[in-house]
């Protein structure tokens, strides 16, 4: 049995140069195994608390020395001697030790680092890979029968995910003027992960070429590696992406569909959505819904994340009634990987998909429980990175182990992103037929989705 013997932590740095927590756990007879915690910029209000030192004299208050001290002290004392293979028991212990609903006392960064490092330490002691370990943990939650029709195939077996990849970045992730955070592509027509990835790289390069050709900053990239140009409107970005797909010989919609992360919470205040890119235009929830619907009519859009804000349940209901049968509607800030918020969404009939970010909730076990709840209720789970990332590849192993079907990591530039994409290439090679690529087939039940490509009419 992998018994936790040593727990250590240190402050390391993420892809924005911000301090973050690395935890190192050693099981009896094993080697030190580590995990690094990521960090968001467009965070939701309901996320678990990331503990920062707040000492303005050091690194503008972003240090995580207190979280590190919590791991090395109180947390280490509590988990030493525990069975690292019992993820549920370990994570429950961590939650109880913290004692707050949002992990605000010890810090979700301290707790998640421990939760993940324990899984890696258990894998090391057992002599198995991370993906095998995550798969064995998921086995305890893995649906035994086929989930509801629209997520059929998801979560049942290990599998390679469909990548959802950022091409153009705006919002809080890039210095341009776009209000919307991510303009993404989903290579739904690809038949293997490697092919999907090669298509993505081709389209990404082409977007850069197209932007440069008309004088935009085609080489400046945002926090997740997507291009961050100053464009004339939010909509113009869609035109660039569709043109790039066509220019590399792929069919918009059938081969490569479009996704958006509107990340609308950050431009929502006092009941209005305030769009800077269109001169401070103020829209109601219904008007944002109209706008998104009109885009879905004109572009091959398959997925929309955070189309409305984290508190706008009524708006979300309307959005789901209007678009929920033709488009994947992902709740990120809305659900924050939190089982009770997702349950509320399911009861209210809001959204049909949930973004899965480990550090929004703060333990591996709770993350998996939220995924299971999603699958049982026909919601697609989309495993996601944060805008502040590191070389840690946990999410790549996790998405394959669970067969969750989709992964959102950012763009194909910046090595903290490529660490995940490259890990998927390794897993595809190593697992072979044991990890099927589900690809775009997971969306078979969406109706009236404008993926034919013929009606895509990019502007200008
Ligand atoms: P974040 O962005 O990590 O800055 O929250 C990712 C997202 O909104 O999906
Ligand atoms: Zn988001």
Walkthrough of the structure:
The chain is an alpha/beta fold and 460 residues long. Helices cover 36% and strands 17% of the residues. An eight-stranded mixed barrel has the order 5-6-7-11-12-13-14-15, surrounded by six helices. A three-stranded antiparallel β-sheet has the order 1-2-3. Mean pLDDT is 94; it is low at 453-460. The structure holds 2-phosphoglycolic acid (PGA) and zinc ion. The site of 2-phosphoglycolic acid (PGA) has 11 residues, from loops.
Descriptive key words:
36% helix; single chain; binds 2-phosphoglycolic acid; three-stranded antiparallel sheet; alpha/beta; binds zinc ion; globular; disordered C terminus; 460 residues; eight-stranded mixed barrel
Outline of the structure:
This protein has 460 residues and is an alpha/beta fold. The protein is built from 13 helices and 16 strands.
Mean pLDDT: 94
Bound molecules: 2-phosphoglycolic acid, zinc ion
Order of helices and strands: EEEHHHHEEEHHEEEEHEHEHEHHEHEHE
Q: Strands across the major sheet, in which order?
A: 5-6-7-11-12-13-14-15
Strand tally is: 16
Helix content: 25-40%
Note the overall shape: globular
* Biggest β-sheet description: 8 strands, mixed, barrel
The N- to C-terminal Cα distance equals 63 Å
Strand content: 15-25%
> How many distinct helices?
13
Radius of gyration: 21 Å
Low-confidence stretches: 453-460
Estimated structural class: alpha/beta
Helices and strands in order, then pairings?
Layout: E1 4-13, E2 19-27, E3 33-36, H1 65-79, H2 87-98, H3 108-126, H4 130-139, E4 159-160, E5 162-169, E6 182-186, H5 193-213, H6 236-247, E7 257-261, E8 268-269, E9 272-275, E10 281-283, H7 285-298, E11 301-305, H8 313-323, E12 328-331, H9 339-348, E13 353-356, H10 358-361, H11 364-376, E14 380-384, H12 394-402, E15 406-410, H13 415-431, E16 436-437
Helix pairs in contact: 1-3, 2-3, 3-4, 4-12, 5-6, 7-8, 12-13
Zinc ion binds at residues 261, 263, 305-306, 332, 355.
């Amino acid at each position: 049995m992998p018994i936790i013997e040593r727990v250590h932590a240190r402050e390391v740095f993420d892809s924005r140069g911000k301090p973050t927590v690395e935890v190192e756990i050693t099981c009896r007879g094993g080697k030190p195994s580590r995990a690094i915690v990521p960090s968001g910029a467009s965070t939701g209000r309901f996320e678990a608390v990331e503990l920062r030192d707040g000492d303005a004299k050091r690194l503008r208050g972003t240090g995580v020395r207190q979280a590190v001290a919590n791991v090395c002290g109180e947390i280490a004392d509590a988990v030493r001697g525990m069975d690292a293979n019992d993820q549920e028991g370990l994570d429950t212990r961590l939650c109880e030790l913290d004692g707050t609903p949002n992990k605000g006392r010890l810090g979700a960064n301290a707790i998640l680092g421990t939760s993940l490092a324990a899984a890696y330490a258990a894998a090391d002691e057992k002599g198995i890979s991370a993906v095998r370990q995550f798969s064995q943990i998921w086995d305890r939650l893995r649906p035994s029968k086929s989930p509801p029709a629209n997520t059929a195939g998801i979560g049942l077996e290990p599998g390679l995910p469909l990548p959802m990849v950022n091409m153009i970045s705006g919002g809080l992730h890039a210095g341009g003027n776009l209000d919307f955070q991510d303009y993404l592509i989903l290579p739904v027509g690809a038949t293997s992960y490697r092919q999907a990835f090669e298509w993505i790289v081709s389209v990404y390069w082409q977007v850069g070429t197209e932007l440069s050709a008309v004088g935009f900053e085609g080489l400046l990239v945002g926090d997740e590696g997507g291009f961050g140009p100053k464009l004339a409107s939010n909509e113009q970005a869609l035109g660039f992406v569709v043109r790039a797909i066509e220019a590399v010989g792929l069919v918009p919609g059938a081969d490569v569909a479009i996704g958006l992360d509107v990340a609308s919470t950050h431009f929502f205040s006092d009941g209005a959505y305030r769009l800077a890119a269109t001169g401070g235009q103020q829209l109601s929830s219904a008007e944002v819904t109209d706008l998104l619907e009109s885009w879905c009519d004109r572009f091959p859009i398959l997925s929309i994340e955070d189309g409305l804000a984290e508190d706008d349940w009524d708006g979300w209901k309307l959005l789901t009634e209007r678009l929920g049968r033709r488009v994947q509607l992902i709740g990120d800030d809305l659900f924050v990987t939190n089982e009770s918020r997702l349950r509320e969404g399911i009861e209210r009939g809001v959204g049909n998909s949930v973004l899965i970010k480990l550090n929004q909730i703060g333990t591996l076990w709770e993350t998996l429980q939220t995924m299971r709840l999603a699958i049982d209720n026909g919601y697609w789970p989309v495993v996601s990175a944060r805008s502040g990332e590191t070389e840690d590849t946990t999410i790549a192993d996790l998405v394959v182990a669970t067969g969750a079907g989709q992964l959102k990591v950012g763009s194909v530039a910046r090595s903290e992103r490529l660490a995940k994409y490259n890990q998927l290439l390794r897993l595809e090679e190593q697992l072979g037929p044991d990890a099927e690529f589900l690809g775009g087939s997971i969306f078979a039940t969406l109706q009236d989705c404008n993926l034919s490509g013929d009606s895509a009419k990019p502007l200008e």
